Amino acid sequence: MTRRIVHVDMDAFYASIEIRDQPDLAALPVAVIATARRGAVMTANYVARRFGVRSAMPVHVALNRCPDLVLLPQRMEVYRGVSAQLQEVFTRYTDLVEPLALDEAYLDVTQQSSTLADAEQLARAIQAEILTETRLTSSAGVSVNKFLAKLASGLHKPSGLTVIAPEEVDTLLTRLLIEDFYGIGLVTAGKLQAPGIRTGAQLRSRSLAELQAVLGAGKLAPRLHGLARGVDERPVEAHREAQSIGVERTFDQNLTTREALLAELPGIAVEVAARMARRGYVGRTVVLKLRYADWRPVTRRRTWTQPLGTAEDLADAASALLTSELPVEQGVRLLGVSVVNLSRQEGS
Length: 348
Known about the structure:
It is built from 13 helices and 12 strands. The chain is α+β, with helices and mostly antiparallel strands. The protein is globular and about 60 Å long.
């Protein structure tokens, strides 16, 4: 049976809430920042993005790009309250709702719609209800699986609604860059680009065996082999619990000094903390991952008695783990921080 999947993604969620509550900011560049001692951008409105301000960017870099940037502290309790409103809207249309974060979710509306056109009308109604009840805009994607629906929701932001029909898949995917495929991060992109795989067309041209030679014998190669052809069999999973939340950063030039490595951790920690907060988690085990210039991986972890969730605590924990590995023997090409042993944050 052909599924009908809707992906709803709020537009610049945190910043849009702040502008909704302070309308005088509407025409100004605005960024919401974490309240850690080492600031970084959590999200920016579309005015600020035109200056190159992006999520996880250190505040001083953002201010260099946009000196008039309005910086606002996060109000996570407010954001969680709006997220609860969104979930209430979603469940009016289907019980099969899979939240990805506070501001986005997959909805399986197969039982509620017989065609993609029907699903499009449902998505339009959902967007209208969200706007009425929260005074916030959203973008939506409609297609036959989760991968294509999420891809569609990002094509025409903000306030967009895009449908990807099966007959459009081949043309669309062939012209994408591999970085545009959901789930391909910097590390995987680098591995694919090394043998000349830079576009969807080039990804589609490689056999499964060729991709396994590049990516290894795990699940990634078969998954990308399918995604390149628009195939994604993952069901929408209601009430799915996260096992880990983390961020990895790959560097264009290997980092070789203590100062350079430690300077990267606060920004990574801010992004991890933001992802945890969006999903309502804290965690007790912090994992540090290094990958050296020769691709040798090193992983260190420590478990705390009390759960951690703030960017400041995560940065301190990761810094302690990194210090045990210093000085480095050679350059570091990848640095990552993740949190496991997760539990729900009180009140979420």
